Amino acid sequence: MQPVPPLDTTYWQQRYEIGQTGWDTGAITPPLRDYFNQLGLPDSRRILIPGAGRGYEAEYLHRAGWPNVLVADLAPAALEALQTRVPGFPAAHLLLADFFALAPTPPFDLIVEQTFFCALDPTLRPAYARQCARLLRPGGTLMGLLFDTEFSQPGPPFGGSRAEYRAYFEPYFDFVHFDTATNSLPPRQGRELFICLKRKAVLAQDDR
Ligand SMILES: C[S@@+](CC[C@H](N)C(=O)[O-])C[C@H]1O[C@@H](n2cnc3c(N)ncnc32)[C@H](O)[C@@H]1O
Fold it and tell me: Rounded to the nearest whole angstrom, what is the distance from the C-alpha of residue 154 to the centroid of ligand 1?
């Protein structure tokens, strides 16, 4: 088995440069679109899309009038693609940054997950859950999709199961929804969980 290279800026930037972006659906996916559509009229909510890639969800929210949508990604090529496609997207909302280095100042109301968690080294999963909780205000929402399957190829993407994921999020979140998505894209049908988690009011001292 080939060793996994460090999943750093160089790795991800190169994936974009050589066009190895099999995760890229080219448009917002139905589960996220339907969730956004039921949020109602745009408001000042601060929304973070970490590991946003080319940012189709950010584009959708921006075009729908949501003013405070921020994306974070390590790869300049990913953010450049969003900027080129959507020139009106605020440059200040394109964060060329490591998700784990983001600060909760001010905190976010909503974090959107899609094929970012599965792209991380699995040893970072507990830190991902903790960092999402740290970035959200109490009662803030982490929503999106997690693969509920194992992959035959070495990752990324790295697969997993709902039981495994539950253990990461339970310390910080109340579970509103955590079940197989019903409106996935056909190749992902039955293989991904739709999650909607509310950050607990109080975090343990060590997790702030
Ligand atoms: C599999 S891609 C998914 C992109 C996008 N969410 C999508 O569904 O098209 C993972 C993305 O996460 C970014 N990424 C990986 N590690 C990161 C980190 N620590 N902080 C921010 N972005 C990261 C990569 O550059 C890449 O764009």
Answer: 17
Could you please state the CATH topology (level 3) that the domain comprising 103-208 is classified under: Rossmann fold (3.40.50)
Is residue 118 packed enough to be buried (19+ CB in 10 Å), middle (13-18) or exposed (0-12)?
A: buried
Q: Cα–Cα distance between 90 and 70 in angstroms, integer?
A: 9
CA of 95 to the centre of ligand 1 (A): 12
> Is the CB of 114 inside a 6 Å radius of any atom of ligand 1?
yes
- pLDDT tens for 18-62 read 999 999 999 999 999 999 999 999 999 999 999 999 999 999 999
3-state secondary structure at position 178: strand
For ligand 1, is residue 98 a contact (CB within 6 Å)? Answer: yes
What is the b/e burial string over 151-183, where b = at least 16 CB atoms within 10 angstroms of the residue's CB? eeeeebbbbbeeeebeebbeebbeeeebeebee
Q: Identify which of 80, 168, 83 has the alpha carbon closest to the alpha carbon of residue 118.
A: 168
Reported confidence tier of residue 155, pLDDT bands at 50, 70, 90: confident
C-beta of 35 in contact with ligand 1 (< 6 A) = no
Alpha helices (H) along 1-124: 9-17, 30-37, 56-63, 76-85
CB–CB of 99/50 below 8 Å? yes
Which atom of ligand 1 is nearest to 99's Cα?
20
Enter the pTM of the model. Answer: 0.96
pLDDT tens track for 192-202: 999 999 999 98
